Each structure stands twice: as C-alpha cells, then as structure tokens.
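Q: Given only this backbone (320 positions), what sequence would you predict?
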C-alpha cells in the first residue's frame, strides 16, 4: 500500500451499477475517484502526442469478441487486449496518444460501438498514454488504486483514473465479464492482471514475457512479487497471454521466464556472497541456450544482471 494519505479522501465507495444513460447494464464494483481534488494537477508534455502517420498500428482478432491492438514497430511495439460488446468496447492501455484516435475510429467503424472502459495495467506512461482521448468521449478509466499516486506525483500526461480498486474488481459489459486482479508489487506496485475467463485470455503486461527478455535493468522492480505474479499466472486457466509488447505468449513461456528469473537471482546472490564486485560479477552470470534465443537477449541480458544485482545488493546483509 503505497498510496499517499492525501489521496485517500478522494476515494469514495461505488454507488452501485454504473448506468450511462439509464438503459444499459454495464457495471463494475470499483471506487470512484473525485477528479475535483486534482483539477489543476501539473502534467508533463505528452511525448506520444505528436502526429505519427507512419507509426504502425493494428487491431487484430484473438478469438470471438476479443481483439488485440498494437502500436509501434519492432522492439517498440506496445499492445493491449480489446473486448468488443454490443454495449461498447473495453480497451487496455492505449499506449500512444497519436494512435488512440485511430483506435477509437477503427472500433467505431468496424463494430459501430464506442469505448466504454479503458483499463490501465500499471502507472507507466508508455502504456497508459492516450486514454484521455477515450475519457473525453465518456469512457471510464480504471486502474489499481496504487496507480493514482505515481500518475499524479510523476505528473504523467495521461487520464486520471475514474475508478480504482484494491485487490479485485469485476466489470460486466455487454453480457461479458472482465476480472481485474492485483497480485503483488512486481513491475511497479500498481500492476493489474486483466482476465477474460470466457476466452481463457489474460493481460499481463511487462511482468510476463513471450520468449522475450524482461526490459532493461528491471526498472520499478520487486523481485518476490514478480515471482508471486508469475506463479499466479501459471495457476490460471488461460492459453493466450498478451504481455503488452511483441506477440502474445503462453503459460509455458511464463514458466520458462520464471525459471530464468529464479536462476538469475540465485546466480547473482551467490556471486555477491562470494564477494565479487560488479565488474567481476556480470561476466560470470551464465544464460541457458534457450534464454539466448529470446527476443532482445543481446541488448537486455547485461542490463538484466544489473537490475538483479541492484535488487540483491539492497536486500542482503552479510557479516558487517
Ligand atoms: Zn512498465
């Protein structure tokens, strides 16, 4: 629980099923955020707002009413699941303001519905930018309550959430059920798992991988909760996992990633306990042949060691 005291008065209990025009059954059990408390909050310039006509973008069917949107190219691609229902769409992490308008129009033209909900996976601006485009049209922006403090404190130029939750939240939309769950601090302390039970699909952004390396030096990182989160994912009845980047993965990919993280942690801990300095240690970490084939191995592996070295160094005390 990292939320600042001064934010707490802004939260109030949900008043029951949401109803936009009195005729719809869309509902959720989140808590309303009082935007008046933050009416004049400072925000930084939006680095994703400039026109980007050549930036790749797509909305691709996963199965049934479940789709995946992507924006960006190559290693910069960001993604999120999109649920289409007769009552409106639910979009996870628009990611870029400059393609959010395209996504809104694409959903409207192909499916003749607006966007009813935007869900944030966590309070990192490279995933949540663009939500204000949907919020202006009346979409409800949802996040874990722990996302509020960094969004405000870091002056992130993304929509302030309208509704938040602590451990679990359920959204009912067009007869479909979407389950939001908070496991533990892992990649940020606001990471939300978004489960689509009917489709056996899960949004697990940044902490889950798909034959790909975790990003750089594990910024905003909590090792025990990362493993706890991967264990939670492995226990779910899912066969499609969107990881917020690249291509969707599977539970087998998540299990392989867990093995990698546990092995990396143990190697770095053992080397640190042997008294090795960073300059010695990073040269002595070994990677399996499987891991060496993962996306971005060359650019990420030494940074991964750095991130784990930092975590280990901050969480041990030997004889001194
Ligand atoms: Zn992130």
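A: Predicted residues:
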């Amino acid at each position: 629980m990292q939320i600042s005291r001064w934010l707490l008065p802004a939260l109030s209990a949900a008043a029951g099923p949401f109803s936009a025009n009195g005729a719809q059954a869309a509902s959720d059990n989140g808590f309303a955020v009082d935007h008046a408390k933050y009416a004049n909050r400072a925000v930084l310039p939006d680095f994703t707002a400039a026109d980007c006509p050549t930036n790749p973008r797509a909305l691709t069917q996963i199965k049934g009413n479940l789709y995946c949107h992507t924006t960006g190219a190559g290693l910069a691609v960001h993604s999120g699941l999109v649920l289409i229902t007769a009552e409106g769409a639910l979009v996870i992490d628009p990611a870029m303001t400059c393609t959010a308008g395209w996504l809104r129009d694409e959903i409207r033209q192909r499916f003749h519905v607006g966007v009813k909900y935007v869900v944030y996976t966590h309070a990192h601006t490279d995933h949540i930018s663009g939500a204000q485009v949907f919020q202006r049209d009346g979409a409800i922006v949802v996040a874990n309550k722990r996302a509020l403090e960094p969004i405000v404190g870091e002056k992130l130029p993304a929509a302030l959430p309208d509704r938040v939750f602590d451990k679990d939240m359920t959204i009912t939309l067009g007869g479909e059920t979407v389950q939001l769950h908070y496991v533990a601090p892992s990649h940020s302390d606001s990471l939300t798992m978004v489960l689509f039970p009917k489709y056996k699909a899960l949004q697990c952004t940044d902490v889950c991988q798909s034959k790909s390396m975790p990003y750089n030096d594990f910024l905003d990182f909590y090792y025990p909760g990362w493993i706890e989160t991967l264990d939670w994912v492995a226990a779910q009845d899912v066969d499609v996992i969107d990881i917020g980047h690249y291509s969707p993965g599977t539970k087998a990919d998540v299990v392989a990633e867990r093995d990698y993280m546990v092995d990396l942690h143990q190697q770095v801990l053992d080397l640190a306990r042997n008294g090795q300095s960073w300059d010695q240690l990073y040269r002595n970490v070994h990677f399996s042949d499987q891991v060496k084939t993962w996306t971005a191995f060359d650019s990420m592996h030494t940074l991964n060691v750095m991130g784990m070295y930092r975590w280990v160094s901050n969480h041990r005390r030997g004889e001194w």
